[in-house]
Amino acid sequence: MAEGKIPPGCQFWIIDRNIQRRDKPWVTSMDFEDDNADEQEKPKPLVFQGLNKRYVEVRGLEECNWDASRQNTVFHFLHWLQVKAGFNANWMMRHRGRFERNRPPLQYRDLEVMVKVLCEEEL
Length: 123
Hints:
single chain
């Protein structure tokens, strides 16, 4: 990705088996205005089929149940990787090799946009 060799629109998918999708997302402080309008605008999550399982897109911690005593979800890892470790889009652009510097800039502003999360569900 940092070298700019991946085509536009490409995304990485990670399956997180530490989370379970919630029927209704938690309400955050930004959601207080109009819950119904927000639900109608939000597209349905993507679903992929596997052998006796399905993999459903989860867009954030508010959409899933996870063990609150441990911060071991993909969302926690991506936050750590981007904020604490500093491996973010700016870092990738600064570390392009001399042959990749003329390629277009990254289309992603952060890892949460580039990396999508799936939870595993039984059929």
